[in-house]
């Protein structure tokens, strides 16, 4: 089979492309040419490097979601305002030099009050709805910026973003806490920290340095400190976002191991979250967008 | 006048030394040879570079507070356990090669439960008590790691550390929020953010990304975003540490502009914090330590 279109998920730090035949991926390619590493004039060359082996002689549709549409990306794509369908914003078509490329960058979503934005996750949400048009509940998309999304009647009703993943990485790798953290994990310490943070979320500011002091004074191990840090931050996130999961049907879209930590935290709250594979959701959403454009 | 001892405040990123005659500073020197940049074998040379012009032929006492006594420092100094006087830990005397140096590194303080540690601030607290032996109340020492210290009857009763300063720097300079922040300040935005964070401290996790979204969607200015970030984090700190300031006599030890932000936040809570100059407190504490050793 030869590809009849190309699907691309262009993130801040990475880009993935799939050679597609209808809804079937034939091949995948990835690189570190994320949006954060490129100027607007660099995107076409980066795309060609990634997909050159797949290009036919005639123009082929390339459907892109994610940060290629950011203000600092290839070309700014609009945001559709929620409440709306996740694909309500349509796409933009950046000018290209290579006549074999017919590029569409999908729009993101915005929320006026409280102010919030997403780029890329809307396509995963569209993918979930393509598979299950009657989905009614909350989607949790863990990542650098975790999204919590209320979905009903085929629309995104509201959403919020938590910087938990980015804050964890900064604290674990660059703050004074790095001296006491190491690879590995401790399920019980994670669960305890989630519970502590949810019981007194206002105490987060002083609990963090406690990880350092516990290491110096009481020999807290590196893996336990790492699991506690994750638990304190995810517990604080759950406390902030209680209306998004309390009594709700929740599905988590993403990859292990991060999604497993969110699942463990939510399971401890009495939920039974459904797990949805991130790549499948992305491809399903890009396929639906390709069928519409 | 010739110096009869040398006072040193050795921090993680900077070091300052004073040529002292009794309690009078004759000269000051500073460098970026902080503890974080040195191996244990490097400290003596770094000290000599800083104070060589002041050295007499006979041994001179060099009294050092701060991170030179950390595990990764020149030589680990003990921690005295609170409750205790701030100078209860005494000092260690690292071996030196230059016979003109008689070096003492002052001990820090530790708290068993909740686990906490300090190095350097105990000397500022001793300095405050040297000036005002009857001080009874709370000392707030803003910085990378802000300390809140309950002092009574000449002793440190308890203390807590908040990583607010370090988290602010990481978020402002290295997270996605950096795109929307710039130099400058907005007093009203700071005050509003402190009040918001104190009213719903559990919502911190989602308010942070709101700064980015407000910039993208509603044109939030760089200085206002910076003041809001500071206010959200200091408000969360005040919410976590309410027992340390509610109904207490509070004195703030430090330098402008950081101390002014803490003073503004506390004043909005109905307090009238006393302001104490950080360098004076440090020198007063080092002078008291020199008189005892």
TrEMBL record, chains A, B:
Superkingdom of origin: Bacteria
Gene3D superfamilies linked: 2-keto-3-deoxy-galactonokinase, C-terminal domain, 2-keto-3-deoxy-galactonokinase, substrate binding domain
Stated name of the protein: 2-dehydro-3-deoxygalactonokinase
Phylogenetic placement of the source organism: Bacteria, Pseudomonadati, Pseudomonadota, Alphaproteobacteria, Rhodobacterales
């Amino acid at each position: 089979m030869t590809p009849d279109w190309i699907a691309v998920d262009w993130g801040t730090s990475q880009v993935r492309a799939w050679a597609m035949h209808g809804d079937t991926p034939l091949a995948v390619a990835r690189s570190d040419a994320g949006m954060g590493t490129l100027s607007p004039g660099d995107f076409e060359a980066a795309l060609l490097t990634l997909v050159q082996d797949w290009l036919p002689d005639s123009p082929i549709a390339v459907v892109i979601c994610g940060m290629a549409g950011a203000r600092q990306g290839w070309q700014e794509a609009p945001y559709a305002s929620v409440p709306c369908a996740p694909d309500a914003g349509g796409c933009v078509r950046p000018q290209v030099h290579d006549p074999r490329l017919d590029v569409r960058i999908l729009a993101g979503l915005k929320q006026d009050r409280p102010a919030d934005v997403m780029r890329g996750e809307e396509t995963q949400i569209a993918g979930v709805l393509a598979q299950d048009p009657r989905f009614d509940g909350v989607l949790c998309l863990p990542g650098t910026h975790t999204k919590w999304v209320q979905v009903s009647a085929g629309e995104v009703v509201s959403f919020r973003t938590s910087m938990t993943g980015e804050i964890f990485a900064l604290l674990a790798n660059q703050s004074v806490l790095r001296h006491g953290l190491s690879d590995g994990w401790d399920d019980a310490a994670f669960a305890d920290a989630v519970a502590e943070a949810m019981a007194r979320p206002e105490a987060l500011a002083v609990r963090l340095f406690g990880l350092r002091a516990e290491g110096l004074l009481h020999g807290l191990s590196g893996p336990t400190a790492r699991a506690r840090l994750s638990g304190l931050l995810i517990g604080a996130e759950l406390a902030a976002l209680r209306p998004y999961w309390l009594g709700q049907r929740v599905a988590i879209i993403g990859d292990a191991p991060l999604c497993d930590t969110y699942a463990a935290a939510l399971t401890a709250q009495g939920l039974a979250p459904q797990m949805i594979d991130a790549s499948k959701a992305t491809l399903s959403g890009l396929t639906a967008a390709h069928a519409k454009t």
